[in-house]
């Protein structure tokens, strides 16, 4: 996860952390092992993240049955997993993202704080699409949070505008 404050064509403050999609998948795998005694693979974790994933406990995205291996018996088993389970699994990685955002904001000169308060934050990239993430970040920062209009290429377009390339 990259957090940056950009202004006047330059980076004022930036942080990089190892929290994003893969970390979300590993958090889901660990949570289901501890809570349900079921071992699942990365592809199942990705499926759960895309189908049920949410960063906000008030967002109910339903539930689904997932197959894996029992921690106790080593045999195949299934478990019914809810979006609330996935939200709980993602709680710690999302908290780390919030800490990173706060550290980036704290490094900003006071003169820019008013601009950030009025303009808010913009999320982009794959993890930005996680339902409820913008709301969780808004609650954690008390700032307005919006999603970039184009997810995949907004970082490239932003870099192009900074360096003046077309």
Helical content class: 40-55%
Q: What characterizes the major β-sheet?
A: 3 strands, antiparallel
**Average pLDDT number:** 86
Give the count of helical stretches: 6
* Extended strand count: 7
Question: Order of strands side by side in the largest beta sheet?
Answer: 3-4-5
For the termini, the CA-CA separation is 26 Å
Task: Please give the radius of gyration in angstroms.
Answer: 18 Å
Elements, N to C (H/E):
EEHEHEEHHEHEH
> Which structural class is indicated by helix and strand composition?
alpha+beta
What share of the residues does DSSP label as strand, in percent?
Answer: 15-25%
Q: Please tell me what the overall shape is.
A: elongated
Structure description:
The chain is of the alpha+beta class. 48% of the residues lie in helices and 22% in strands. Helix 1 (21-36) crosses helix 2 (42-52) and helix 1 crosses helix 3. The longest helix has 24 residues, at 83-106. It is elongated, with a radius of gyration of 18 Å. The mean pLDDT is 86.
Question: Any key phrases for this structure?
Answer:
single chain; 166 residues; alpha+beta; three-stranded antiparallel β-sheet; two-stranded antiparallel sheet; 6 helices; 48% helix
Care to give the gist of this entry?
The protein is of the alpha+beta class and 166 residues long. Helix content is 48%, strand content 22%. The longest helix has 24 residues, at 83-106.
Write the layout of secondary structure elements.
Layout: E1 2-7, E2 10-16, H1 21-36, E3 38-39, H2 42-52, E4 63-70, E5 76-82, H3 83-106, H4 110-119, E6 121-123, H5 133-141, E7 145-147, H6 154-163
Parallel strand pairs: 6-7
Antiparallel strand pairs: 1-2, 3-4, 4-5
Helix pairs in contact: 1-2, 1-3, 2-3, 3-5
